[in-house]
Amino acid sequence: MEKGRLEAFSDGVFAILITITVLELKAPHGVSLSALASVLPLFLNYVLSFLYLGIYWNNHHHLLKACRRIHGGIMWANLHLLFWLSLFPFVTDWAGENHSAPLPTAIYGAVLFLASVAYFVLQSLIITEQGCDSKLAAAIGADRKGKLSSLLYASAIPVAFFQPWIAQAVYALVALFWLVPDRRLAQALKEA
Amino acid sequence: MEKGRLEAFSDGVFAILITITVLELKAPHGVSLSALASVLPLFLNYVLSFLYLGIYWNNHHHLLKACRRIHGGIMWANLHLLFWLSLFPFVTDWAGENHSAPLPTAIYGAVLFLASVAYFVLQSLIITEQGCDSKLAAAIGADRKGKLSSLLYASAIPVAFFQPWIAQAVYALVALFWLVPDRRLAQALKEA
Amino acid sequence: MEKGRLEAFSDGVFAILITITVLELKAPHGVSLSALASVLPLFLNYVLSFLYLGIYWNNHHHLLKACRRIHGGIMWANLHLLFWLSLFPFVTDWAGENHSAPLPTAIYGAVLFLASVAYFVLQSLIITEQGCDSKLAAAIGADRKGKLSSLLYASAIPVAFFQPWIAQAVYALVALFWLVPDRRLAQALKEA
Amino acid sequence: MEKGRLEAFSDGVFAILITITVLELKAPHGVSLSALASVLPLFLNYVLSFLYLGIYWNNHHHLLKACRRIHGGIMWANLHLLFWLSLFPFVTDWAGENHSAPLPTAIYGAVLFLASVAYFVLQSLIITEQGCDSKLAAAIGADRKGKLSSLLYASAIPVAFFQPWIAQAVYALVALFWLVPDRRLAQALKEA
């Protein structure tokens, strides 16, 4: 498996996902301010999903840059990650349309959680391929940032059934926390 | 015809197909568990189609890697394969929306069958181009795996009219059977 | 302007257009054979549009391969061609939904005609850039095939108002006529 | 961050946006001339958005060509620009469906304004990266064209509430004014 074609395919999927999520943002019925306001929750959810897809794309890029050889396992771990990301348009639409009702908010968190697990699996496979003493392994280290994020998503799921707004705030805060690109990795790889 | 541009175009089509199939997964009306359950058959069909597109992308990649020269016939055989794959969103939606009624299940199988035939034609053209003593020809051999899959899809079509669930199980089993990437090819080409 | 990025962008647009046209093919309401038959006209129109987009992609590829330098004029002529091609999903849907009523059939022909003119303009700009004694100019020659196609589309437009089926037959025949890739060009460039 | 992958991702997003905007152009109900005329405002808005996306793609290409190194800030400034561009299908549809009512026309202008600001930010970051005495800095100069455009979009927003057609005319005129590719940049870079 050539790395270039895997990257190109993944970039295509990222570009499509980041773009079609907005397709769910249907033109409101009516031309009043209140009609515009009615699409606001969906719009905010779109912004959040856009951020998450941008973060994943950025980190995915650094991860694959560090990867030298692609085997079948990495290929399928990558598709597994793309699968959970491909559910973003669906959960963005469902949570946004329903002003953050409990179940859609919880499902949004579940997709975030499963995507973070899939990312972790992909990362582990690439580190194993590289060897434990590789620069990538050193840069990732114990991956506290990644593990904490997964934990926060998982914790937000039950919370969504009682106070959906708290769960939403958790999703937004974790996104802000990742907006800063993974400097450890960028740094370590630059030195390479 | 340059191979690079054919690969890039095919990758684009694969990336779009794998992503837009999920667009058919409309947000359910309502926020209850039963509303979520109502999209489950469509979701499972989406998972299956995602797997099939991932398998085709993976095998297509190995096939083209083995190919040195593209002529008009290969170009059209490739488009012919992409045509049948492009019907996945349509059949996924139709079969999923109707809880696997007989006719949609049979049509799903027909598209799987025709895609597998189109893949076989593309493969044969590339082998002819390479010469029968090529590594690719040796790696594919009698292509029992491919022929058996086509046979299973074809057999599932009449079965769908009596027991749609058996046909669906066949589609799922063949997908699992392909999840393991085509090691023969990967192996043979690595030695090249 | 780098040729590579223009090709990549055009390939992206071609891949999306060829794929989203099928999105208009909505799952029929019902699971009977007659429900399936109701999408048949739209399906046939989809096949025709798929063929046309495949033909344009193939010829576009040969044309750009022959091109050495891209200036602003070529960039905009290329976007102009992509604009008319981007109307394919719209006209395919409109003509297919209405069992080839006169006006939609005529508009389908008008889009085919305008796309062929846009292709001619792009080709002329590239030949001018190359110089009249270039291999491309020699390969295209008087471009009787291209001019005849444009003429046939234009003639089919008024016919569509009287006998839409004749116009449709003309569109299908011209597509078949182009299915054979432009051997003149392929030949001439191979010798280069 | 490798420039190639950023360009490929951006090209993917541009290709998708320019293509899916037309998906909002639904086949009219009916086959009469008046049914066709009913989609005309949406069609004209589509043409305008297509032009704007083509202009942004062209200028984006020149800008990144001039860029040597991508850091995290440039990556996010680029995503920020793509975010505003991704709202084009939404505003095109809303303004077009409502025959240019005041609010949708104003929002269209606001998206144009915010996209132009995002482009300005991206350009400034790239110039800072290059150094103020770079060819790019010299080519852009005081960027009167860019600043004037932003000013015109901003001025058109309040006008849209009184005379939407004037605002629309401003959007169309600025687009025509940019149709000529940025020769300063093309020129300066060619000399490089």
UniProtKB/TrEMBL annotation, chains A, B, C, D:
Topology of this chain in the membrane: Multi-pass membrane protein
InterPro entries for the chain: TMEM175-like (IPR010617)
Entry keyword set: Ion channel, Ion transport, Membrane, Potassium, Potassium channel, Potassium transport, Transmembrane, Transmembrane helix, Transport
Subcellular location: Membrane
GO cellular component: membrane
Principal place of residence: membrane
One of the record's GO molecular function terms: potassium channel activity
Reactions catalysed according to its record: K(+)(in) = K(+)(out)
Chain segments annotated as transmembrane: 35-58, 70-91, 103-122, 151-180
Keyword Cell inner membrane in annotation: no
Pfam families: TMEM175
Family (UniProt): Belongs to the TMEM175 family.
Record's protein name: Potassium channel
Organism of this sequence: Methylacidimicrobium tartarophylax
